[in-house]
Amino acid sequence: MQEVAEMTPYQLLGGDAVLRQLVDRFYDIMYSDPRASGIRAMHAGDSTVIRDKFFDFLSGWLGGPQRFIEKYGHPMLRARHMPFAIGEDERDQWLMCMFQAMEEIPMEAALRDHLEDAFFRTADFMRNK
């Protein structure tokens, strides 16, 4: 058995099944919570494709299979998000959806703290206005 210290966030989270739950819950919240209207407006009405892309991205970002890179190449997050006006409000709406989704997924407190910090830094890096 692999030691916990050697496990990736992807493994600590629970792999594909739990990651899919997190991604689906994130988009369910974004598409239903009025507080996320700013970022919801940036997305298509059908979230099927973006859910799969986000799942693929997070898989690799968390240390699991590099599905996104295999399918689409380097994520180039800033470049891919540049067409959208992202300020503090949009960052905070995104984080609200992600943190709420994370609250509904059982995980160790240390992993939650690590992911909240990593998601904040990444979301803040996407700001372009």
TrEMBL record:
<dbReference type="GO" id="GO:0020037">
    <property type="term" value="F:heme binding"/>
</dbReference>
<dbReference type="GO" id="GO:0005344">
    <property type="term" value="F:oxygen carrier activity"/>
</dbReference>
<keyword id="KW-0349">Heme</keyword>
<dbReference type="Pfam" id="PF01152">
    <property type="entry name" value="Bac_globin"/>
</dbReference>
<dbReference type="InterPro" id="IPR009050">
    <property type="entry name" value="Globin-like_sf"/>
</dbReference>
<keyword id="KW-0408">Iron</keyword>
<protein>
    <submittedName>
        <fullName>Hemoglobin</fullName>
    </submittedName>
</protein>
<keyword id="KW-0813">Transport</keyword>
<comment type="similarity">
    <text>Belongs to the truncated hemoglobin family. Group II subfamily.</text>
</comment>
<dbReference type="InterPro" id="IPR044203">
    <property type="entry name" value="GlbO/GLB3-like"/>
</dbReference>
<dbReference type="InterPro" id="IPR001486">
    <property type="entry name" value="Hemoglobin_trunc"/>
</dbReference>
<dbReference type="GO" id="GO:0019825">
    <property type="term" value="F:oxygen binding"/>
</dbReference>
<dbReference type="GO" id="GO:0046872">
    <property type="term" value="F:metal ion binding"/>
</dbReference>
<keyword id="KW-0479">Metal-binding</keyword>
<dbReference type="InterPro" id="IPR012292">
    <property type="entry name" value="Globin/Proto"/>
</dbReference>
